[in-house]
């Protein structure tokens, strides 16, 4: 985490004292998905998010972490690279922002053309269902770069809670 | 099959197999359901009803399992039908168009009758 990045986050907290902030670091393994959902549920509850919206947010973050675990990081264990995912949440009663950070192979969700639902239904596919869920339940998706550390991929999701 | 997050209980009603999916179906637990359905097909069943009355959560990995088998089941003269979906799951099924692809009914008796007719 660079100094500039931390300063930027601290600035947000100063600007809006009511903003709650919480972070989680997990290993990039599917065994961690339960912990991710629990973390998201607890954070959403802490800012007064409805149970239904919380469910949608948990699902979106689960789908993104699953994609990182299964596709961004190489499947082979590496002695030199810890396969980690960082999740940062901030929010208040009106809005929630989730940043998901990894150091795997970059994947631009916005540029990826997922099969449409009708395409999926015409030719049943095992995969391709996660991205429609992510796009349907997120109000804004940003793919960010950290110039100070280009090895990190940052996906920022915005959820309107009102 | 049982682990901390997902329990699968299969039972037989004539030529229909009823699969109760209990708990959380995500990328970690989906392989267990995949294995279970494959075993059901290997036993010769092609008519399957998934009872989701106690399914708390499903991610795309779970939907992927259903899609993996649907063509095979229909080719064999069967199908995959769903009962017991809660409101959250129903909305998700509708979002993905699964309500068009699969028959969903709260009354398992109706699903059984449709298989036999």
Structure description:
The complex is a heterodimer of chains A (162) and B (117). The model of chain A has no long low-confidence stretch (mean pLDDT 86). With 162 residues, chain A is of the alpha+beta class. Chain A has one domain (22-73, 80-160): Histidine kinase-like ATPase, C-terminal domain (Heat Shock Protein 90, 2-Layer Sandwich). Chain A contains 5 helices and 5 strands; from the N terminus they run αβααββααββ. In chain A, α2 runs antiparallel to α3. In chain A, strands 1-2-3-5-4 form a 5-stranded antiparallel β-sheet, covered by helices on one side. In chain A, a hairpin with a 7-residue loop joins β4 and β5 (153-160). The radius of gyration of chain A is 16 Å and the shape is globular. Helices cover 39% and strands 23% of the residues of chain A. Chain B is α/β, with parallel strands linked by helices. Chain B has a single domain, classed as Transcription Regulator spoIIAA, CATH 3.30.750. Chain B contains 5 helices and 6 strands; from the N terminus they run ββαββαβααβα. Chain B has helices at 30-42, 60-75, 87-95, 98-101, 108-116, and strands at residues 6-13, 16-25, 47-51, 55-58, 79-83, 103-104. In chain B, strands 1, 2, 3, 4, 5 and 6 form a 6-stranded mixed β-sheet that branches. In chain B, β1 and β2 form a beta hairpin. The longest helix of chain B has 16 residues, at 60-75. Chain B is globular, with a radius of gyration of 13 Å. The mean pLDDT of chain B is 94.
């Amino acid at each position: 985490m660079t100094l500039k990045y931390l300063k930027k986050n601290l600035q947000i907290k100063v600007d809006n004292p009511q903003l709650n902030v919480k972070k989680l670091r997990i290993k990039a393994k599917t065994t961690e998905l339960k912990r991710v959902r629990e973390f998201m549920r607890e954070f959403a509850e802490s800012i007064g998010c409805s149970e239904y919206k919380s469910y949608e947010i948990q699902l979106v973050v689960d789908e993104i972490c699953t994609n990182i675990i299964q596709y961004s990081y190489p499947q082979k264990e590496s002695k030199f690279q810890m396969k980690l995912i960082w999740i940062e949440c901030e929010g208040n009663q009106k809005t929630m922002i989730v940043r998901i950070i990894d150091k795997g192979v970059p994947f631009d969700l916005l540029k990826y053309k997922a099969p449409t639902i009708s395409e999926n239904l015409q030719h049943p596919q095992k995969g391709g269902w996660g991205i429609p869920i992510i796009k349907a339940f997120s109000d804004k998706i940003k793919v960010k770069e950290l110039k100070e550390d280009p090895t990190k991929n940052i996906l920022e999701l915005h959820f309107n809670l009102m | 099959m049982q682990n901390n997050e997902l329990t699968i209980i299969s039972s037989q009603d004539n030529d229909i197999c009823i699969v109760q999916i209990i708990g959380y179906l995500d990328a970690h637990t989906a392989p267990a359901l995949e294995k279970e359905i494959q075993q059901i097909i290997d036993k010769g069943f092609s008519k399957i009803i998934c009872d989701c009355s106690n399914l708390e959560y499903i991610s795309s990995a779970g939907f992927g399992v259903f899609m993996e088998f649907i063509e095979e089941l229909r080719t064999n003269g069967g199908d995959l039908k769903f009962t017991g979906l809660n409101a959250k799951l129903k909305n998700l099924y509708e979002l993905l168009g699964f309500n068009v692809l699969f028959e969903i009914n709260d009354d398992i008796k109706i699903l059984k009758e449709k298989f036999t007719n």
